[in-house]
Amino acid sequence: MRIHVLQLQAADRLISDTFNSVGLNVLSAGTFIEPADIQKLILHDIEYVDISPRGATHTFEIESAIILNQNQLEQEMTFADAITGIKDLFRSADLEGVIRQEIVEASFNPLIHSFQQQKDVVSLLLSLNSKDDYTYQHSVQVGMLSYYIAKWLHKSEEEALLIGKAGYLHDIGKCRIDNTILKKPGRLTESEYNEIKKHTTYGFEIIQQSFHEECLSLTALQHHERLDGKGYPHGIKGPDIHPYAKIVAVADIYSAMISNRVYQEKKDLLFVLKELHRMSFGELDPRATQVFIQHMIPNFIGKKVVLSDGRKGIIVMTNPSDYFKPLVQIGEDFINLSEEAHLEIELIAM
Question: Where do the HD-GYP domain residues begin and end (predicted)?
């Protein structure tokens, strides 16, 4: 079955090797198409490929589906274990004033090892969703995303794990904040907001008494600081903010905005990337933010979307001159959002 690359779907299987114009083997026969593969074909100016007939039942397709389901189940279990681990850490920090290294290692490291080969972080964020308290899920997401950003910045595996751990622990100081404030459904008063901001110094104190790595405690203290000096708790500027805190700040904002909270509905994943892009000019570390956006954008290819006019389609290609205005296929039609100023993506799903 010969098909144009813009009509490819996730899980389509190539039945022949695919070469570019100079003879480079871009994708091999037997490859199950992922969103990043479509982008790769487009970049190599390949227009048509041969795939197995859709709907045909083959043993390898069944086996692949079983493996995918098993991997998904394992990821959900390790995610749940990490949620349990952060709950234990919050409890320990609240009761004893310290957290234990063995709990962190037992819950966070398996999480990262489970997701090390995961290329589609967007699907990961869409599929892994806990019904637990926002604070716990947020801590796990920030740990994962901080690890990914560190790897995308070409940090060593050892340093990336440390940065991921800093993200996992960044909000531990919230264990000392009254739950009536943390879970208040309405707008916080000035005094309540000032109390919330203390979680950074509380986290610094707890981690400083629990670990010898200063980078962990400084990340908890500084992840709400901003390059322009308008953050908290101390209003320090870019050069004085620890590099790990700058990375965790990007993951923290992204996770917070894509999550439902008691006082705010979640924002769409692509909308939040656009907001991060805006903040990279003066507030957030531009390198960490841009590398995060650049690695996230290709993962949107193949995702279902709902447009602002109610129509539903699939993202088939990103726009290199405007990441946030991709090409969307609706039935047999293709909508270039960069040429449709009145249209926006309202929702992205699996």
Answer: 113-308
Residue ranges of alpha helices (H) inside 198-317 are 199-208, 214-222, 243-257, 269-279, 286-296
**Domain of residue 201, CATH code:** 1.10.3210.10
**Considering only CA atoms, which of 88, 196, 195, 185 is closest in space to residue 136?**
88
Q: Residue 80 CA to chain centroid, in angstroms?
A: 17
Give 31-50 pLDDT, tens digit per residue: 888 877 887 888 778 889 99
By C-alpha distance, which of 350, 45, 339 is closest to 328?
339
| Same domain as 249, residue 105 | yes
324 contacts: CB under 8 Å, gap ≥ 6 = 270, 273, 274, 277
Q: How far apart are CA 52 and CA 73, in angstroms?
A: 27
3 state SS of 229: coil
Mark 298-308 as b/e (b = at least 16 C-beta within 10 Å): bbbbbbebebe
Residues 229 and 308 in one domain: no
CA torsion, ordered 165, 167, 168, 174, to nearest 10 deg: 130
**264: helix, strand or coil:** strand
Q: DSSP string spanning 88-109?
A: HHHHHHHHHS---HHHHHHHHH
